[in-house]
Amino acid sequence: MVMTIVENEVQIPGQIVVLDPQDGSTVGTVPAASKADAERAVDFASRAFESYRTLPANVRSSALAEVAKLLHEEREEFSRLIAREGIKTIREARREVARCVNTLKLSAEEVSRLTGETIPFDQAEGSENRVGYYRRIPLGVVVAITPFNDPLNLVAHKIGPAIAAGNAVILKPHSETPLSAQRLVNLFARTGLPAGLLQMLTGRGSEIGDTLVSDPRVRMISFTGGKDVGKHIQAIAGVKKLAMELGSSCPVIVFPDADEALALDASISGAFWAAGQNCLHVQRLLLHETIFDDFARQFCQRATALRVGNKLDDATDMGPMINEQAAKKLEALVVDALDSGASLLCGGRRQGNVFFPTVLANVDPTCAIAEEEVFGPVTILERFNSVEEAIAKANSVDHGLQAGIFTRDLNIAFRVADALDCGGVMINDSSDFRIDAMPFGGTKGSGIGREGVAHAAREMSDVKTYCFNLQQSVGCETDL
Ligand code: NAP
Fold this sequence. Notes:
alpha/beta, Aldehyde Dehydrogenase, Chain A, domain 1, Aldehyde Dehydrogenase, Chain A, domain 2, binds NADP nicotinamide-adenine-dinucleotide phosphate
């Protein structure tokens, strides 16, 4: 049995009402945990970890595989829930669920790959009698804090590897999208995973965050979210491991020899997937001077043709922003850029919390929109004349998550990929390309550490060394 903190179990005073950002209708409610609930969750997790720190690997692996199977069986219900509580269209939500099944399967497999090595201790003079090895051990209690934009798969990217590595996990999902996470956690209750190894605590980060983050019994914070919250967590966490998956303003560079149709398709999808509320969103499209006008015209045509509307309609390409405040913040960034001389190539319009696909050019590099993550459906087009200029422009921000390059020239691809200061470079794909098995994370202000199931499982474990000093004088008292 897995404990999910629900009202009758933990006496939670308030509730969080989850609203559909499309029409404000109520999708569900979850308890709003207090600081005392957060402390109790850490108590419970610590005790559960002590009880089950030697839980056999096969039990952890089976639980993860079983949840992957159950999730696949309930994929349509999960997809509809993601599409209702958050910003994704039903097609985007289905894709997220399929990826989440894979993330959990990978986590189940990773259990058997968390191995150690023998150590040749006799390489050091005087250590000839020693033999030993290292193996991976769990950290203990891991707190996983997740954002709203991928409310299911980013949860799986934390709880999957954490369970694979043998930890006790406390999940704190985003307050605006906790329902698909809650349903996922409830699937674990149908497996053999012991109670307390996975808890979900719903509540405002501003209320319970500090209690969870600063508790010394918590050995790791795995955080995905914005830079400001990330900085705050880092400042108060104390001595513990931190994984920080933060934002970006990803560049995609299109060279004149690129396959233009491929570059257009990938850039449009990367720019407007999840209405741009995506850490890999194509925020800056760097186009060679010779192709700029033609590419810009086609890009705007495609952006304007996207169907913005009802998330649950299969024909819809793009949904709303998470709330009106986020849409207004984006509008202010666009207005500021336009006031500073930027050209509006298409869009620029807000209706409630829907922001229509927007393309800007001639943006003053000192504008906030040129430096900050927009986290919405706005892409800035920039020109370049040389490989060096493209690299310099791409590297000019304090972010470095992923980048895309479109070229048929291998030499350019290698040179630019090496020079880009970021965690991943996709050649002939947009910055938005990702599979769940690959290492994933950023440089500079985009974060610390790497996710991707195998990498996260290693970050969520420690190495323990064992060394046996074999005394020749000590023998076994046997009759051999
Ligand atoms: P956010 O506002 O930073 O919230 C993220 C999480 O932090 C939420 O669960 C939030 O809880 C919690 N939180 C808030 N204050 C906290 C505190 N004092 N202590 C502990 N936790 C606290 O981010 P968001 O708007 O959900 O997500 C957007 C950001 O995430 C963007 O910057 C995006 O690029 C980034 N992101 C990065 C990746 C990546 O892999 N690099 C992936 C996806 C998104 P409440 O909801 O209760 O406030």
